[in-house]
Amino acid sequence: MSTAATISTFRPSPTALRLRKVRDRIIESGLLVAALVAVFTTVAIVVVLVYESIPFFKAVPIKDFLTDTMWTPLFAEARYGILPLVAGTLVTTMVALAVAIPAGTIIAIYLSEFAPFKLRETIKPCLELLGAVPTVVYGYFALMMVTPFLQKFMPDLPGFNMLSAGLVIGIMIIPYVASVSEDAMRAVPNYMREGSYAMGATRFQTATRVVVPGAISGIAAAYILGISRAVGETMVVAVAAGLQPNLTWNPTESAATITAFIVQVSLGDLPHDSIGYQSIFAAGLVLMLMTLVFNIAGFALTRKFREAY
Description:
The protein has two domains: 57 residues; 226 residues, MetI-like (MetI-like fold, Orthogonal Bundle). It is an all-alpha fold and 309 residues long. The chain is built from 13 helices and no strands. The model has no long low-confidence stretch (mean pLDDT 85). The termini are far apart. The longest helix has 46 residues. The radius of gyration is 26 Å and the shape is globular.
């Protein structure tokens, strides 16, 4: 049998080719729809927040909302200054990042470059399991264990404070930072490590001067994920930091965050058409904008470091 005859024998029929093209188009369309779900969800969230916030800003001037230092929407003489909630959110986030970013990065470097295979395969699942613990458990851990422990060294520390809440949030997001950073470092090609070793660099120098810069994009993504997770945390701050809006930058004091206020009002009996209830959408809009700013800053830093290296 000739080669041409063999090829013609295995040539698919026109009907089979049409069915294959239809199947490929269906699969491509399904993948496109799956990819657009995230976009549509984000747009829908923004639309809902903006639409529900319009009645609130008709009653409360934006200037007062952004500059007033009192947040008492549930009082008889209501005040709607978002600054106390923003301050509480930023303080707890900064405390959490001060714990999670150094610890997560160090853990990622160790697991990627220094840990034996069996130890890495044991530690990483345990680390990821830590990220699966319900956040309300972390909240009571902060209230019942971390705060009493801190009070041994700081007797004046109140029972509800941002320091213990921030520390526990930092512990909670370590798995996110460490796992994503370790995956990014493991993706760095081995020839970069081998070239560094050939130049006489030690393992530590290779890890810090070659692997980390080579994985900076993934590490920055891990940091952004951690920041977003810390900013949006609800139960830990609601349980351990308190629910009293207090404009302070001192982490040893009690304060409320944006997410804690949203939970507090959402579980109340306020009418849905009241200004107090509509304030949660304005607060949610501010929270979304804060997260957006952190993400943009993270991507800008990623691009800067990528160009530097």
